[in-house]
Design brief:
The chain is α/β, with parallel strands linked by helices. It contains nine helices and six strands. It has a domain at 55-197 and 229-251: ABC-type transport auxiliary lipoprotein component (Rossmann fold). A hairpin with a 5-residue loop joins β4 (127-137) and β5.
């Protein structure tokens, strides 16, 4: 009995080996097919228009939506998380460092452009994003409005003046931002948008966002992003994309016909 069992296994060995090799070939073909369409399967991220190691800070978002239930720190954290996904060497200063710097300056938040520049000097940031939620309706279909202002730090010859600003003097002057516009020191770039999930174009953007993130492959998986926190994440992603698109355009040299290459 023992001898026959060994022979039986021995006779079936080549067949098992052939099947194993075939399975490996099939698996390899599947992997190659997946890699071949990798452009559609990987998560889409934005690219930084700045030099490597460009430091950017995000101050706590302001609430001008009229909804007292809005958690501005949740908005700030989601925006910070999405901004971290940007490729190209962009360095996003952690929110806790921004809060610590504000505390050291005796401020809860910035209220005018001078304070933005002072905070940039305190953090060693190249730029600061000031964000405001202008509308917040978390019920179905969700609606959210957001405004962003991007301030670049002043040049080196002005940094001493920035660092010597008296916070008390700034507070007494009380220059309001007046979001989304009308500030004394104009931001380099500004984005103002309202995202209404009752609109077909917004739904199309949500579906595209869901596809790139591969969060759910089911036909109705995109509906998860109609919940308040996920919708907030989508809005932050879209706003960052628009902000960086404007910065890419602003920083790209314009070629004039007739110029020498």
């Amino acid at each position: 009995m023992y001898k026959k069992k060994v022979n039986s296994v021995s006779m079936s060995g080549p067949c098992v080996l052939r099947l194993s090799l075939s399975a490996r070939v099939i698996v390899l073909l599947i992997v190659l097919a997946i890699l071949g369409c990798g452009g559609n399967s990987v998560e889409r991220v934005y690219r930084s228009p700045y030099r490597p190691a460009f430091n950017i800070a995000v101050v706590p978002f302001l609430n001008q939506s009229g909804n007292e239930n809005l958690d501005v720190m949740a908005v700030t954290d989601e925006f910070y998380t999405e901004l971290q996904q940007v490729t190209g060497g962009l360095q996003v200063i952690p929110v806790n460092r921004v809060l610590a710097a504000l505390s050291e300056l005796g401020m809860r938040n910035v209220s005018n452009p001078d304070e933005v520049m002072m905070l940039a000097g305190q953090l060693g940031a190249d730029a600061v994003i000031v964000g405001t939620v202008t509308r917040y309706d978390p019920y179905q279909p969700p609606r959210m409005g957001m405004a962003l202002q991007l301030y670049h730090r002043e040049k080196a010859d002005k940094e001493k003046n920035v660092n010597s600003i008296d916070p008390g003097d700034i507070s007494r002057r009380g220059k309001a931002f007046g979001m989304p516009g009308g500030v004394p020191l104009r931001p380099e770039t500004m984005v103002v948008r309202i995202f209404d999930a009752d609109r077909k174009d917004v739904i199309a953007r949500i579906k595209k966002y869901t596809h790139h993130r591969q969060t759910d492959t089911t036909p109705s998986g995109w509906k998860k992003f109609l919940t308040s926190r996920n919708y907030l994440r989508f809005v932050c992603y879209e706003m960052i994309g628009e902000l960086l698109a404007q910065e890419h355009k602003r920083l790209t040299p314009i070629s004039i016909e007739g110029d020498s290459p």
